[in-house]
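Sat 14:20. Reprocessing the chain from the morning session after the first attempt stalled halfway. Input below, unchanged.
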Amino acid sequence: MVAFEAQSFGPLREAEDFKKWVGGAADNFIIALARLGFDCGWFCRVGDDELGRFITRWIRGEGVDVSRTVVDASKPTGLFLVERRSPESNFKCHFYRSTSAATNLCPDDVDEEYVKQAKVIYPEAMLTYISDSARAAVEKMFDLGIKHNKIIIFDPNLRLTMMSVEQCREIHIPLMQKATYVLPGEDELRKLMDAPDIHSAINKAHSLGIKNIVVKAGAGGAILAPDGQEPKQIPGFTMKKAVSAMGAGDCFVGGFTAGILKGQPLETCVRWANAVGAFNTTAYGPFHGCPSFEELQSFLAGKEEISR
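Finished this time. C-alpha cells:
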C-alpha cells in the first residue's frame, strides 16, 4: 500500500496536506531487515499505476528483490490515510484496499523454488483480511515453510476495522499455532485470546500450542514468553527525540528477525528488536528511522548517543 499521512492534527476531514509514504506491515518489516544487511525478497501485486511504480521503485532501492512482484492492470494499488487527532493520541489508519491489486494475490504467485532459498519467511497477516485468494496465498506460505523447515515469523496485526475479532481468531489462531515465532502487541494478544490480562493471554496461547511468543509493549519493551518458561520482561529504549511511532512495531519484528538470522539467544533478539523499534521513532515515516547493522551494534554497545 501507499500511506498518505495527514500533516495536521484533528479530524481527517479537516486535513489538507498529506505526506506520501510506502506503507504496510510487510513493507516496513522487509525494509528494516534489508537495512540491517540481509538479502530479502518480496511477493506482491501492485497496480499498473503511479502508486504501484512508487512502491516497487522504493523497495527495489532499499535492496529488496522485487522480481516476484506482479504488476496487475486489473485493479489499482491499495492505499490508506493516516489520521492524527492530537499530539498525544496515537494515529488511526483508514484503509482503502478492498478493491486493490493485492486482493488478486493468489497461491500461484508464491513460487516454491524461491521460498526454498530462504532461511526465514514472513507471511503477512494483513493479507488475510482482504480476499480469499490472498488468504490462501498466506496459507501456502505457511505450508511451504513447514514443508521446507523454514523459520516462520508471524505478526497477527489485528485490524478490527477490517474484520471482527471472532473472524480474526478463526483465521489467525491456526496460523499462530504453525508459526515458529509469534509477535503480537499486548492488546492484540489479549483480544485474540479473549483474556483479561496479558499473562492470562500468554498462558492461554501456550495451552493452544502457540509456543514461542514475543509480546510487543511499545515504550515498555517486550515480554519474551517461550512455552515452558516464565515470561520475562525485556526493557525498551527511551529516545529523547522520538517523533513518531508509526511502523515501530513492524521494525521491531525486523530487528528480532535479524537476531534470529545471526543465531543470537532469544533475549538478545528481543533486545535488538527493542532497539530497532526505538530507532524508528526518531524519524517521520514508517521505516525511515531504521538503522544499519553497524549503527545498531554501535547503539547497543553504548557508543551512539541515545538521544538520536
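Residues 25-43+105-298 form a domain with the UDP-N-acetylmuramoyl-L-alanine:D-glutamate ligase fold (CATH 3.40.1190.20).
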